[in-house]
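Q: Got a minute? One more chain.
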Amino acid sequence: MKNLILIAVLVAGVLIAGAVIYVNPSIFSGQEKLDTENEAQNILSSQEAADKALSFINENILEPGMTASLIEAIEENGLYKLKLKIGEQEFDSYVTKNGKFLFPQVVDLEQPIVQDTGNEETPLPAENPVSSEEMEKFITCLKDADFVIYGANWCGWTKKLVEMLGGFDTIEPIYVECAEEKEVCDENGVNGYPTILVQGEQYKGARTFEDFSATTGCEIPAGAELLQENLEGGSCK
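A: Always. Here it is, folded:
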């Protein structure tokens, strides 16, 4: 799912503190007061703070080939609000005026948190356009071609690929769960999920039935093209 959660996934673990603490300036004296005054003089412009935040995100957080760009930077409630664009998605993030702390989002303490009551109806899953027999036949062919997926069940990118191929039970013959078989994944040089190896070599094509078929010679199941809409090639570390 592409929404605000994506940017939160990208910067999760970078920041610990999410609150702004107010300290009475009257308690400062001597060197402490001087340090505070010097800190106040280190305020960056919105553009400078945005540039610093973008450099950090692009150099340290995003996967290779992905780039965040700035749409606008404005002041909001004592912080700089950054409207960012990654791919075709837009996200709001925040950075302190001295450019030291980046926040994926800010919680409005004056707004109540809406609890999920569980009363909303859960939409029924769409009917799979590929029969189980056809998908199992395709998976068997991939197995014969030494096509192996190394994934992690907590990773959204792994889940997308697995769902496209019929689910965890269906792909069991060609799937290795790295959360349970870490040594196997390490031995095969897996450092991101999902990773696909074909005859021991890393697969670099698109995660589509067409490319899987072109690489392995396996016949594409009828209706499979309806399962790969919006599938992208990201990965989890």
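A: The domain at 132-227 is CATH 3.40.30.10 (Glutaredoxin).
Q: Perfect, thanks.
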